Description:
Elements: H1 3-14, H2 20-28, H3 34-60, H4 66-84, H5 89-113, H6 120-136, H7 142-160, H8 164-182, H9 184-187, H10 193-218, H11 221-226, H12 237-254, H13 260-276, H14 281-295, H15 299-319, H16 324-348
Amino acid sequence: xxxxxxxxxxxxxxxxxxxxxxxxxxxxxxxxxxxxxxxxxxxxxxxxxxxxxxxxxxxxxxxxxxxxxxxxxxxxxxxxxxxxxxxxxxxxxxxxxxxxxxxxxxxxxxxxxxxxxxxxxxxxxxxxxxxxxxxxxxxxxxxxxxxxxxxxxxxxxxxxxxxxxxxxxxxxxxxxxxxxxxxxxxxxxxxxxxxxxxxxxxxxxxxxxxxxxxxxxxxxxxxxxxxxxxxxxxxxxxxxxxxxxxxxxxxxxxxxxxxxxxxxxxxxxxxxxxxxxxxxxxxxxxxxxxxxxxxxxxxxxxxxxxxxxxxxxxxxxxxxxxxxxxxxxxxxxxxxxxxxxxxxxxxxxxxxxx
Length: 354
């Protein structure tokens, strides 16, 4: 716990917001040094692997039938739920390992037990949605909820496939992140606010990663780049168009209280950004996620958005099948858009000299 956080706890005690027991409990929750937390996490995962290995060996004597896998998976998930209730760094990491292993065994068992109308991958993904969704409901750590959220979104993507539907999923994720960030004050105090916040982070990371995953799923773009046939094969027009609309809507909402002239300027800047990076929708999604996260003071999500933007600029530069002069012109156009954004921000904050 940083000094400012410790001082805040003392202020809460002085003003009578928390009693002596609550004050002591808050101080007891202070995290230790990062290296100690890392060692505890590694020790928890190592202990979890040893325990799961010790349990799996006797179960292997009963065979590897779907029933055995299902029972083992259910026991691991139940153990994870019990460990999460203890709310400690070591137990939370152990619970995460047990939960992921249990979910995998349950999905494997259910996929072998029932043959539905889907192909094998979609069938497993469908059961994964049910199992992971159920594990999101009990009390758990934030990391567990974020990981489960990512798994859930991945399963939904497998169900949708690599066609236009998955592009609609990407637009929905970007829009969901934008909406959850701008409405954060309304739900942050809700009893399920912690779960919603974790899902927001998972949706943001998934939205940022989806354009790259989809490009690789539709064609081996990086291999093509190495052999000299680089190109943005399998364009994502629906994702680019939908993300552009979300970006315009987000900008209009954030600037609803400013002058008409400034709103028009920002609209022109957003249009320039969309036109410059129409072939790289990942940059449009990164702009949406960063603006929404910055407005909601979500530093982790904003950092992911900036990292994704840097990576997508590299992909845009090296994979786009156009001349070097064309690439440079588009990047310069993006730079002009960023300078215009800076000018607009300085007008909104005249005292800021940065």
